[in-house]
Structure formats: C-alpha cells, structure tokens
Amino acid sequence: MAKRVTGPEIEKLIQLLAKVPGLGPRSARRAALHLIKKKDQLLGPLSHAMGDAYDKVKICSRCGNVDTADPCTVCTDERRDQSVIIVVEDVSDLWALERSGAMNTVYHVLGGVLSPLDGVGPDDLNIRGLTARVSEGGVREIIIAVNATVEGQTTAHYITDQLAGLEIKITRLAHGVPVGGELDYLDEGTLAAALRARTAI
C-alpha cells in the first residue's frame, strides 16, 4: 500500500479533480500541484469563481441552457431568430454551435439521448418542454442537431414523431465529409452518409 504524502485536504482536492471529464488520477495530481503552487494567482480566484458559480448558475427553464439568468441570455436576446430552434443533446453542443457563429437562433437542450439499455426514456429528457414550446406557436423550423449515433438517430426520429401534425419544418444536420477531411481517412459510415447527402454544385 502506497504511503500518503499529503494531507487529507490535498487528497480531497485530487479526488474531486479526478472526477472532471478528461482528468484521470495522474492528471488530477498534476493539476492540484499546479494550483497549489500558484495558490494566490489560481487557487484562490478559482475557489471564489466556483463559489459564485455554485450560488448563481441556474438551468434555463425554457431551453435547458446554463446561465446566471432564467430565462437565459440566449432565450431573451431579441436579435435572435426565435422562430428557429436548434435541438441539441447537451449544453456543450450548444456552446460548440455558438462558437461556429453559423446561425443566430435559439436552442433546446434535451439533456441526453434515448438509450433503453441505459434506462434513459422520453420522460428522462426535455422533450416535453420542446413540444410545449412548439405548441405555443411562432416556431417555423426545428433543426435536430444530435450526434450521429444510433441513440442520436433514435432520438431524432422520436422527436419527429412527437412533432408530427404541427405545421413546422423539421431538418437535421448534414452528415458527411468534414471540411479539410481526406476521403482516405474517413470511415465507411461517414462516406456513405456524405454520398446520401450530396448536393448540386
């Protein structure tokens, strides 16, 4: 059994950091040591920022985004096209689409995808909230931007079925060759999707 070389407070910091996605035990130890070495410049401000986030961050009751306001700043931005809703799996997907700057619309965060094997059904996702938003009127298009996995496609089909009968356009992200991608390095599924989604030039 390895001997403990630090106090319980540092061990707790390492254990908590190790739970952050992308950080394993070794990376967590390095991160903790770096924070401790830069106690005044990093550890103190980080502690205060995390305290503020704990106290002030909310989940938007309209779209599911995280913000310090409810409704969030995306939902209340009058410059956005409120008639187009992009449906995403998680907040990280919303942030990625925002970074692209491709569209100036609003979003709806599902909180995951349907996965019967993992016990995730329709009631575990924010699908009811989406149908309620569409039923309020004023929505002309739903863009389903879920991952191109079996669960993602199942979720997309389920949402399409739930919105059937409402006079709105339902689209999904194109799948295929990424910008800058080389055909030789792509898998067969991606190539097949790119061929099916081909467009005129």
Short description:
This protein has two domains: 8-56, Helicase, Ruva Protein, domain 3, CATH 1.10.8; 66-175 and 189-194, Dna Topoisomerase Vi A Subunit, Chain: A, domain 2. The protein is 41% helix and 12% strand. It contains seven helices and six strands.
Account of the protein in words:
This protein is of the alpha/beta class and 201 residues long. It has 2 domains: 8-56, Orthogonal Bundle (Helicase, Ruva Protein, domain 3); 66-175 and 189-194, Dna Topoisomerase Vi A Subunit, Chain: A, domain 2. Helices cover 41% and strands 12% of the residues. It is built from 7 helices and 6 strands, in the order H-H-H-E-E-E-H-E-H-E-H-E-H. The chain has helices spanning 8-17, 25-37, 39-56, 91-100, 127-135, 150-162, 188-196; strands spanning 58-59, 66-67, 81-88, 105-109, 141-144, 169-172. The strands form 2 sheets. A 4-stranded parallel beta sheet has the order 4-3-5-6. Helix 6 links the parallel strand 5 and strand 6. Helix 1 (8-17) packs across helix 2 and helix 2 packs across helix 3 (39-56). The mean pLDDT is 90.
What is the number of strand segments? Answer: 6
Rg is: 21 Å
Strand content: 5-15%
Task: Kindly identify the CATH topology of the largest domain.
Answer: Dna Topoisomerase Vi A Subunit, Chain: A, domain 2
Mean of residue pLDDT?
Answer: 90
Helix fraction by DSSP (H/I, runs of at least 4):
40-55%
Number of structurally distinct domains: 2
CATH hierarchy class name of the largest domain: Alpha Beta
Instruction: Please state the structural category.
Output: alpha/beta
* SSE string: HHHEEEHEHEHEH
Q: Can you list the strand order of the major beta sheet?
A: 4-3-5-6
Low-pLDDT runs: none
Main pleated sheet: 4 strands, parallel
